[in-house]
Amino acid sequence: MSNTKPIRIMLTGVGGQGTLTATTLLAKAVLAEGLPVTSGEIHGMAQRGGVVESTVLIGCKSPKIGLGEADVLLGFEPLETMRAMPYLRKDGLVLSSTEFLPPLSVAMGKQENVSIDQVKEVVAQCTGNSFYLPCQSLGLEAGAVQAGNLALLGALTATDAVPVSPQTLAETIKANLPAKIVDVNLKALELGVGALENT
């Protein structure tokens, strides 16, 4: 599969949002499409409030993403989207939640939070290719706030940026998540696809 165009995807959020679950599901969906994939956690602890950054690399030789190399940035939390922007290549794709889940530093008053307009401004300096979704609200609509991560993944599969269809992601959810949360996550996926198609 050496003819696969390399695609570097960076995912960022805060602990407790399901960023790592989303990373695993996306990597498994890419594998299900028969493509070579590597995934990993850059740094951060999956504790509530801690920053979590991870990668999914499709058809890449190097297992890491350097500054200015990510083709796609998935931001499960707007402040983390903004912080990760140095990794995005010029004109790369950004999909970000519009709803804040302040990291520990903000919750403890050590740092100011930013507004969604400030986040959009920083993103716009690098790319005009961006979409914003109310992920937590979509998760709640599906039945669980944590399912917001699947809404963002669903939106990604509705773009032509990755060789993964919403159907493949749905099958991956069914095969890899506990039965009791499958329906909620499938609903979130559907809402994410719908939200992107309506932007």
TrEMBL record:
Stored InterPro entries: IorB_Oxidoreductase, Pyrv/ketoisovalerate_OxRed_cat, Pyrv_flavodox_OxRed_cen
GO molecular function, one term: oxidoreductase activity, acting on the aldehyde or oxo group of donors
Keywords: Oxidoreductase, Pyruvate
Cited Gene3D superfamilies: Pyruvate-ferredoxin oxidoreductase, PFOR, domain III
Pyruvate/ketoisovalerate oxidoreductase catalytic domain boundaries: 15-193
Database matches in PANTHER family: INDOLEPYRUVATE OXIDOREDUCTASE SUBUNIT IORB
Protein name as catalogued: Indolepyruvate oxidoreductase subunit beta
Organism the protein comes from: Pseudodesulfovibrio senegalensis
